Amino acid sequence: MKIILAYSSKEGLLQEYRDRLGGYAPEEEIPADFFAEGDSRETIKAIINALRSKGHNVIGMEASDLMHNTFNSFHPDLVFNIAEGLYGDFRESYIPMLCEKYNIPYTGSDPLTLAICLNKARAKEILSYYLIPNPAFKVFYPLQEVYLQNFDFPAIVKPVSEGSSKGIFNDSIVDNVQVARKKIEENIRRYNQPVILEKFLKGDEYTVGVWGNGDEMEVLPIVSINYSTLPEGAHPIYSYEAKWLWDTRDKPLEIFQCPATLNPTLKERIEEVVKEAYQVLQIKDWCRIDVRLDENGIPNILELNPLPGVLPDPKENSCFPKAARTAGYSYAGMLNKVVEIAAKRYGLA
């Protein structure tokens, strides 16, 4: 099969950012988390090699306006999409929209689902409509007065449309109106987008990989998160600091356990709620879903990531590959399984 890997590299996102500013932007003036969603060259190369190991003819390409030229010259059978983009509420939808325009099959969810899942508020509204548990929340927009009366603290402040812990720092947990207002206003200025204030649940947290479509949907082994391994004084969240500064390849934290130690009832409840979320948001092929227990022990959906990270090195604690390894898949086996799932959906397999 001829496959194009569509990606957003950290270098590519930096160049896009500089182009927007007329070609110049000193790296020291760029916020530390700005390119958190970009993939490294190491990851991109690992994915290409993994797909080639199955005999596929694979090329990689930075997601850009020039991709249609490659479509016309390479004539791919499938696009393996991991492109996050940098600007706009629909940035994760760009490659799927381009694929649909040119009638090219692609892995993962469609443009609408990607846009909804990127917007935490819209995703939560749909979950709430279907009575799928998720933390209480309120959205604040630029130029809107920050009105917080009767909100139940503690809470967490985060940008509406970011991923990879971008915009979620150790000080994103707030416990009163004054601190919350300051943090909300700071986030709106920094990210130039709406901000969500969400009730902070103090129960255990899990992240769950799901793949497949329809009756073949499968929940991978659940990953539990042990926040006691974070530095003293850190809030129990997988913040930007935890993900990118404290939990490193050289000094990985023993923060994840897979499979999680769960009683059968809780395991079943977590699997049920992630399946429901996967279905109502019309996820396709694969997704990673974050879950946290509330004060009554009920699993709540925190976020859905239909473009899950796939760092190749086990020391980097990438959770979807971790769950797949526990299920018996190698890195290459996991990625080629995603290809098989997508190919079957399109009738290519």
Q: TL;DR of this structure?
A:
This protein has 349 residues and is α+β, with helices and mostly antiparallel strands. 34% of the residues lie in helices and 17% in strands.
Protein model, in words:
This protein folds into 3 domains: 2-106, Rossmann fold; 136-199, Dna Ligase, domain 1 (2-Layer Sandwich), CATH 3.30.1490.20; 205-345, 2-Layer Sandwich (D-amino Acid Aminotransferase, Chain A, domain 1), CATH 3.30.470. Helices cover 34% and strands 17% of the residues. It contains 11 helices and 13 strands. The protein has helices at residues 10-20, 41-52, 67-74, 94-101, 111-118, 120-129, 177-191, 240-246, 264-280, 319-326, 331-345, and strands at 2-7, 57-62, 78-81, 137-140, 155-159, 173-174, 195-199, 205-211, 218-219, 223-225, 256-257, 286-293, 299-305. Strands 8, 9, 10, 11, 12 and 13 form a 6-stranded antiparallel beta sheet that branches. The longest helix is centred in the C-terminal third of the chain and has 17 residues, at 264-280. The protein starts with a strand and ends with a helix. The relative contact order is 0.14.
